[in-house]
Amino acid sequence: MTTLRRLLAFSLAALAFSANAFDLQGHRGARGLLPENTLPAFERALRIGVTTLEMDVGITADGVVVVSHDPVLNPDLVRGPDGQWITTPLAIRELTHAQLQAYDVGRLRPGSAYANTFSRQQPVDGTRMPTLASVFELVKKLGAGHVRFDIETKMDLRNPANTPEPQPFVEALLKVVRAAGMEERVMVQSFDWRTLQAVQKAAPRIPTVYLTTQSERGSNLDSPVATAGFTLAEHRTIPAMVKAAGGHVWSPNFQALTAVELKQAHSLGLKVIPWTVNDPADIERLIALGVDGIISDYPDRVRTVMQRRGMPLPPAIK
């Protein structure tokens, strides 16, 4: 097949894949397979075939929007300029983009709980923390015009000094999104709903994704700061809270999602996309339950279940 024919076939496949189709999201690219939130992980997800690249962002001391789950450099993920594993978490906000480029994020620390959890993850030594702009550039370069982005504003509610205030955080994020011409392809998600309120005011066309977590370790719903003043006491259910807040998507931890809540969310016009679902049995169960998408460290596993069920598959980059 010639290059032109290959591009034409891919374009037709992308057009056929409806915007309302099941949303297969590669969590931090494909964290189970390659170093999280890196260009290699995002490229792997695109070649597997996903609807959406899920990622987290922070902001450097000189205002550059970078892709990182943690507001601070994680000792289980990061090696310093000397090639040794760092021992002191450094806030991204306190480092310039140039300084960050001296750190290697291409493998997990051997023997760490993180490395044991993701034992299949292949290292890519020499990998640097990417900017959000570079992720957009990669997707354009690979011709993945169908792919969307689910971008989390990574706020630190426990240590607020580690991250910017919600408004300047959102302003910096939207500046990069608009400069890349990606406003129509982006969703913004957060456990800190204040940033979502700011997005809704500044860019009402961008869908907002309200993240929730409920477990024995606690819930972000317990903090009126995190929920921007919306409370369960007033709205009675989480879907009602999300709807009242102006959300388009509710994204709960999958263990806490019930069939009753899913039905209510759908009745309110919300999409429901749970995180982070890695076990094939859980993937199968949630698809059968009727969720609108799944966020997974192993997008290949989700795709396998979708294929077995005869569901439309998002195009894969060749």
TrEMBL record:
Gene3D superfamilies hit by this protein: Phosphatidylinositol (PI) phosphodiesterase
Domain GP-PDE: 22-306
Protein name: Glycerophosphodiester phosphodiesterase
UniProt cross-references to SUPFAM superfamilies, sorted A to Z: PLC-like phosphodiesterases
Source organism (scientific name): Ramlibacter henchirensis
Chain coiled-coil ranges: none
Iron-sulfur among keywords: no
Pfam family, one: GDPD
Record carries keyword Signal: yes
BP terms from Gene Ontology: lipid metabolic process
InterPro entries linked: GP_PDE_dom, PLC-like_Pdiesterase_TIM-brl
Swiss-Prot/TrEMBL keywords: Signal
Signal peptide: 1-21
PROSITE patterns associated with the record: GP_PDE
UniProt GO MF annotations: phosphoric diester hydrolase activity
